[in-house]
Structure formats: C-alpha cells, structure tokens
C-alpha cells in the first residue's frame, strides 16, 4: 500500500508527496516533528504538518534569506538568527570570512538534534567556533538582549498559534534595538500568492519601526503557491550597492537574481500600495 503525505494550503488545494521511507515522527514540548523520504525531493522535515525543508529545494530558501543582506551590509561581523533550527541559514552565513560570530536562537532543541542526524548536508559543522546555539524563545531573547548585531535573520515559523507573537510590532521594535546603526533585518514573509493578506498585515503592524522596507521574492517549489517572499528592513541600505562577491558554490542566488528579486507582480504591487 502506498503512503502519501498531504499538506493543505487552503480548503481545496495543497501539495502531496509519495512517501518512500518514514524516518521519524514525534512530539517535542513545542510541536509535532516528522521526517520522511519522498521520491522526488529526498528527505523532508515538517513541523506541525507543514513542510519546512526538503533536501532538493532547501538551498533556495536558505540562500535567499541570507545572501542579499550579507552582501549589502558593509561589514557583517555579527549575525543573529532567530529560529533556523535546521541549520541551513547558519550554513549560508558562515560562508563569509567577515563573519566573526553567529548566534542562532532556536526554541526547540529537538529540531536541531534531529536536523544534525537526518540533514547533515544542511546543518553546518559544529566545529566552526563562530557558531553559538542558544535554546531560547526568540521573543524573550531580543526583549532582554543587550548585544548588538549587524544582521538579524528571522527564519521563523508561519504566523499561527504561539508563533503569532513573532509578527507583532513589539518584537520588531526589540529586534531593532538589537541592531547596530547600519544593521539590516530580513524575515521570511510568507507566500504572496496564497498569503498576501498576511504580508499586508505584517507590513501594517510594523509600519514606521524601520525607515526602509523592501519585499523581494524567490521561487520555492514546495512552499505554498511556489512563490515566497522575504522582507528586508533597515535604515539606509541600498539594494544595488553590494560590498562583496557572491560566494562560490551557490545554486540559486547570483548577481542577476539579486538585481531582479525586487521585481514584484502587479497584483502584489497594488496590494502594497494599499498600505503606503
């Protein structure tokens, strides 16, 4: 008998995978975690029934949340990652020799441990002394944090349940306090195809916290709608002004992608104009 995984993106559509091997299923204190292998995308990590990572296309998300800000910032020596328990974002950040310290704040230790076991090509080497992992609620961390960072990357869950607080104004205000003067923040911002109202709600919620905001897109096949957005926030960054070359060995992000990633479909532009 064939086993199929199904994730609904709305009441009538979603994504399915034919499961080859079921590798892990369990509950942490925070969420349900499943890891299985499928025919076309390799190993898959889901949290509470939502796809977070697949071996085949994970590089797109991790490269796009990381490299634009890392190349735009003049000297990204200290980087804070909120979430990112699969390790992919940290892997990309550590490709820059300018980086002296990476702090990854992940609430769920089990996600980290399982990612190390089942996704060794995604999780960065723990031998790198620049990486520090703190098991803590990201909201609490930035509320009490006194350290300053050059880049903050919010590699967080979708805004449902306990994760809703990660999309509130207070959280972004506290993130701003954790940034250096020329700091840049990037957050994953959901699908502009199936979650456009969520993007609008986020932009309304944080309006005025930062002087500058920029939405950019990437094609990610296994995410809702196949199209994903990221939001870059800061005070005076310039998207066309980069300070270092594209790292070697990337699979999606390049100079042309960087210059074209802010080109938005008309329906997205019109939606954003409603809140400006």
From TrEMBL:
Class in the EC hierarchy, top level: transferase
Positions annotated to bind S-methyl-5'-thioadenosine: 31, 106, 137-138, 162
Catalytic site: 155
Catalysis: reaction(s): S-adenosyl 3-(methylsulfanyl)propylamine + putrescine = S-methyl-5'-thioadenosine + spermidine + H(+)
Keywords linked to the UniProt accession: Polyamine biosynthesis, Spermidine biosynthesis, Transferase
EC number(s) reported in the record: 2.5.1.16
Residue ranges that the Swiss-Prot or TrEMBL entry lists as coiled coil: none
Every PABS domain range: 2-235
Pathway where this protein functions: Amine and polyamine biosynthesis; spermidine biosynthesis; spermidine from putrescine: step 1/1
Chain residues that bind spermidine: 62, 86
One Pfam family here: Spermine_synt_N
GO MF entries: spermidine synthase activity
Source taxon at top rank: Bacteria
Membership in a protein family: Belongs to the spermidine/spermine synthase family.
Subunit structure, interactors included: Homodimer or homotetramer.
Role, per record: Catalyzes the irreversible transfer of a propylamine group from the amino donor S-adenosylmethioninamine (decarboxy-AdoMet) to putrescine (1,4-diaminobutane) to yield spermidine.
Name under which the protein is recorded: Polyamine aminopropyltransferase
Organism: candidate division WOR-3 bacterium
Lineage of producing organism: Bacteria, Bacteria division WOR-3
Gene that specifies this protein: speE
